[in-house]
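Bench log, entry 3. Co-assembly request; chain sequences pasted below exactly as received.
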Amino acid sequence: MYPTDLKYTRDHEWIRLENGGEALVGITDFAQQQLGDVVFVELPEVGRTLARGESFGTIESVKAVSELFAPVSGEVLAVNGDLASHPERINTAPHDTWMIRLRPTTSAEAEELLTADAYTAIAK
Amino acid sequence: MSTPSSSLKPTALHAQHVATGARLVEYAGWEMPLEYSGITDEHMAVRTRAGVFDVSHMGEIELAGADALATLQWLTSNDVARLAIGQIQYSALTTPAGTFVDDVLVYRMGEDHYLMVVNAGNAKKAHAWIASHARERGGDVAVVNASARYALIALQGPESAAILQPLTGVDLASLKYYWWAAGEVAGARVTVSRTGYTGEDGFEIFVPPAQAAKVWDAIADAGREVDLRPCGLGARDTLRLEAAMRLYGQDMDEETTVIEAGLGWIVGRDKPAFLGADVLAAERADGPKRRLAAFEMMDPGIARHGHAVIGAGDAVCGQVTSGTRTPFLKKAIGFAIVPADQAVVGQEIVIDIRGRRARARVVAEPFYKRPRPAPARA
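Structure output for the full assembly:
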């Protein structure tokens, strides 16, 4: 069920590497199930440079708050403004709802992330 | 995900929760449903239709004997003498400092017989407190922790009466808010009260544990027509907060006086002396130093329990006691305990949300008030 064109972290983020060297980041279906109904997402300023594993924001459900971590290092090119008014899209379509668009510093870091198969094994 | 350890107490409805796919969590030593279909879905069901909750973790303490009234008058803040048989009141079990041992409901069951509903986490403490004071006073009163005798099912929401009436001989139309009646539901002997913790119309049904599943299943069946939802502790928390009902252990505790908690209305004015009465009378006359304030966020973000309120000179002046974004009002709201001069409707307060300063405004309670039923037409 986890799309094979995404890479995954142990912190339950996914990253989609696009042609042209940019990448989109979101959270996994497992993560949204654990959180429950998402009601608020706090995202970084465009232009900020993130280190791999650095917190880039927070996601809040009715019952919990969780930090979001950058799967790879890179510069924030855009944030998904739709999430301000429709945070529930993270619940309904987690793998199609991106949070930030990044320009990764290097392509090597993404190679070290989990494949869909490897992630499926830990997402339980 | 962690697996609940076997030392947790399951309620009499555990099999129902497992069968409906509830997410179970530990709460006050009990294994309780946190959510079934999701907090938002459950919250909306209660606001618009109906929801059913297993609240069997709540404790029940019974007091009986010629001095039961005098004992309760000494230990609780509200005026128990005002209760007719069949009537219920919200009250505080107070310390000598006017703070909360617990917040409770007192049911008058008979001439000299009362039942007190206490919070799950306080059942043992409240029972020991009452029993030791009763012993010291030496009157004719038996104090029994009857928590194991009752499962408790709450049916809440505008469709509650329509769902429950076909299952019971109790005339629900004549059962007023904060009154109870004895009868049967789905063939089980029960006590039904028109009470709840959601801000909606609804009922709480005290049932022997062995018959709880039968009553729960009958309500689930009868509610199918209106798409009733089983609801967990998650929705119970967001619903009570929207209705501005306090949660013991967050909004008040043994450090918070009844007046500070904004519950002056449960402090009887013409009743005999009780524990903490002098403190509460002085606070009522002079005003408390700090007070619980209902707030609504102005800036983005959700203030949560434990976040600091920042006052003059960047000093911490208070604390958020409850906070969430509620599904029905779709606003970030909460309670904070703040200096009394800030607990004024319209006042702007500043909350430190994980290092970010966010503004909130003190608002009037409750956040949500249910629409009054349309007046009956002649």
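The interface with chain B takes residues 34, 36-37, 39-40, 42, 58, 60-63, 65, 84, 88, 124 of chain A (CB under 8 Å). Helices of chain A lie at 29-35, 82-85, 89-92, 108-111, 116-122.
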